Amino acid sequence: MKARVHVMLKDGVLDPQGEAVRHALGSLGFDGVGGVRQGKVIELDLADGTSEKTVREMCDKLLANTVIERYDIELA
């Protein structure tokens, strides 16, 4: 079983990496990019039957900083 966790900064939290990417895109001639938010994707290979609740516990305890980040889980 696989799980994919998408971790992004919460709205209102400054994203200096995203701002650097937005600036670089403008420098390369890509106009019209108003904002960039950068995040991460974590792929987990899990034992069959692992619950979404268990994956949420992993996120809450280690994979995401829930003070400033939000996450979404895809199970496959």
UniProtKB/TrEMBL annotation:
E.C. code = 6.3.5.3
Q: Which InterPro entries match?
A: PurS, PurS-like_sf
GO molecular function annotations of the record: ATP binding; phosphoribosylformylglycinamidine synthase activity
Gene Ontology CC: cytoplasm
Catalyzed reactions: N(2)-formyl-N(1)-(5-phospho-beta-D-ribosyl)glycinamide + L-glutamine + ATP + H2O = 2-formamido-N(1)-(5-O-phospho-beta-D-ribosyl)acetamidine + L-glutamate + ADP + phosphate + H(+)
Assigned keywords, A-Z: ATP-binding, Cytoplasm, Ligase, Nucleotide-binding, Purine biosynthesis
Give the primary localization class.
cytoplasm
Q: Which domain of life is it from?
A: Bacteria
> Where found?
Cytoplasm
Which SUPFAM superfamilies does this chain map to? PurS-like
Looking up NCBIfam families in the UniProt record yields: phosphoribosylformylglycinamidine synthase subunit PurS, PRK05974.1
Its assembly, as annotated, is: Part of the FGAM synthase complex composed of 1 PurL, 1 PurQ and 2 PurS subunits.
Family assignment? Belongs to the PurS family.
The protein here is known as: Phosphoribosylformylglycinamidine synthase subunit PurS
Organism of provenance: Primorskyibacter flagellatus
